[in-house]
Amino acid sequence: MSANSRPPIPRDAGIASIGLNFPPLAMPVEELARLRGQDPAKYTVGLGCQEMALCTPEYGVVELAVEAARRALERWGGDPADVGMIAVGTETAMDMSRPLSAWVAERLDLRGAVRSYEVKHACYGGTLALRQAVEWKLSGASQGRAALVLAADVALYAEGDPGEPTQGAGAVAMVVDEPSIARVDPVSYPWSEPAFDFWRPVGEAYPRVDGAFSLDCYKRAAENCFKALVNGGSAEEVLERAAAVCFHVPFPKMVKKAVVQVGRSFGWDEERIDRFFADKVEPSMQWNRRCGNAYTASLWISVAEALRGLPRDERVLAFSYGSGFGAELLLLEAGPEAAAGAWASDVETDLAARHRVDAARYGSLRS
Ligand code: CAA
């Protein structure tokens, strides 16, 4: 293609289609509490958890990612041959070398002039994949083609680990192209610090976590990202302009703690903080409560819930956090197709179809 026959560089880019997928099993956290001899209120009230989505040996991270991608591509309605990038954020890698995107491409028969890769930065990987896709569109490098972005994970802790009630799984796929569902602002607000708060050494099945330290890192990252967004202006004005403020959701109480820290840094009193949490944050964590922590997908499940039914031009803030640690605050604006919220049917379908797991089945799944 000669330089003068190239498609024009788009002025805006963002989410053109969304697909979600949850696995076929779930266990209420009260059931786990009984199994572990804990007061169920520690999990439901103390951590704010409700259910843990669980995979089967036959339905794991590949199936989650493929089904989410299939749904997003079908809903997009474009020609799969026009996909020029597949970027998958995950911390459930299948292999140290072969990217998860290759499994997805294989099952969906996506091949040819496609940049296909995996992005790793703990729970931040899906956000990085989305940012790269948006920047690829806005740079003109995409040559008018679309990107398929995926965030997919299965979060499991060792049996009896304090993190066990926060387990979960899920996948979100987004086609990045014309911003018919949401425009992603090219300006974002990152913050990173090297830390060992949550990590999984090569060859180990489960993560190692310094729980209290990971909470401190997450809160500090949130405070710094929101401060950069407000940039010395009025926090009320900047934050009230958003219809929803979404967070990475390791467990819902964690998000509340971060909101408290952010609110206090702006000098808000407890009442103001509680109102902000109830109005802007909590309403878009209901899908997260049904699936638990889905690592890279967690934030994008919340964003998908926030965008569903949102009038055009309404704003959503999205705070991404990945241990290690890296964080970024993004600004999205609803496009004309957000109001229809077509992707909500994925959640309804998967939640209606899934089976409830009791302690005995959970034990056999883990063995
Ligand atoms: N009724 C009501 N509440 C109760 C209770 C009861 N009977 N018993 C305890 N609680 C409350 C506690 O008071 C506490 O609340 P506050 O924090 O508000 O005081 C809460 O339940 C949790 O209790 P503990 O602190 O004793 O819990 P724990 O030591 O078992 O650890 C954990 C909990 C932080 C989730 C830990 O398990 C953990 O390490 N989780 C994994 C790491 C994690 O998710 N970190 C988040 C940021 S890192 C990240 O973002 C990466 C990622 O996605 C994993």
Question: Which helices and strands appear, and what pairs or packs with what?
Answer:
Elements: E1 14-21, E2 25-28, H1 29-36, H2 40-46, E3 51-54, H3 61-76, E4 83-89, H4 100-108, E5 115-119, H5 125-139, E6 146-155, E7 168-177, E8 182-184, E9 189-192, E10 198-199, E11 208-209, H6 211-230, H7 235-240, E12 242-247, H8 252-265, H9 270-281, H10 286-291, H11 296-307, E13 315-322, E14 326-334, H12 344-353, E15 355-356, H13 359-366
Parallel strand pairs: 2-15, 4-5, 4-6, 12-13
Antiparallel strand pairs: 1-7, 1-8, 2-3, 6-7, 8-14, 9-14, 10-11, 13-14
Look at the structure and give the mean pLDDT.
Answer: 97
The CATH topology assignment of the largest domain is: Peroxisomal Thiolase, Chain A, domain 1
The DSSP helix count reads 13
Strand content: 15-25%
Number of structural domains: 2
Give the ligands present. Answer: acetoacetyl-coenzyme A
Going by CATH, the homologous superfamily of the largest domain would be Thiolase/Chalcone synthase
CATH architecture of the largest domain: 3-Layer(aba) Sandwich
Contiguous uncertain segments of 5+ residues: none
State the end-to-end distance. Answer: 55 Å
Number of strands: 15
Helix/strand-derived class? alpha/beta
Q: What spatial form do the alpha-carbon principal axes imply?
A: globular
Helix share bin: 25-40%
**Largest sheet report:** 10 strands, mixed
CATH class of the largest domain: Alpha Beta
How many whole angstroms does the radius of gyration measure?
A: 20 Å
The arrangement of helices and strands along the chain is EEHHEHEHEHEEEEEEHHEHHHHEEHEH
